[in-house]
Amino acid sequence: MESRQQDLLAAIGIESDAELGAAKHAAEAKPKTSRADRFRHGLAVIAAFAEREGHVRVPRPQEVAVAGPGREESVETVHVGPGAWLDNQKARRAKLTPGQLAQLAEHGVEWA
Q1: Which of 53, 61, 44 is nearest to 104 (CA)?
Q2: Helical H segments across 30-81, by residue range
Q3: Residue 101, domain member (yes or no)
Q4: Which residue, 23, 30, 47, 111, has most beta carbons within 10 Å?
Q5: CA–CA dist 74, 102 (Å, integer)
């Protein structure tokens, strides 16, 4: 917020909240994850599940070991909702690129 705005607010008795300001700065400092990175991560989870189970009828909560975006050299076990992720992809499939749909189809997703 601009200094002038802060001065005007202080003049009418409104003080800034230091805790809120610190939370805002922490959120701004947190690295952003792109849509493409989130898709790649979700696809990695689906691929790991499909390899392990032999199908992609994924229950909502699931624990799988995957390499996250930018962490190809290390694998971690994460608690994710691949079923929910797949449901979201299906609901938004009109916004998926042909390449993303093809990647999902490669892993056995029938609607892709």
Answers
A1: 44
A2: 35-53
A3: yes
A4: 47
A5: 26
Phi, psi of 84 (to 5 degrees): -65, -40
Backbone angles phi, psi at 40, to 5 degrees: -60, -40
Beta strands in the chain (DSSP E): 62-66, 76-80
Range of the domain at 42: 35-106
CB 80 within 8 Å of CB 64: yes
Q: Per residue in 57-108, pLDDT tens? A: 887 665 556 665 565 555 555 555 788 889 999 999 999 999 999 999 999 9
Longest dimension (CA), the chain: 66
In a domain, 84, yes or no: yes
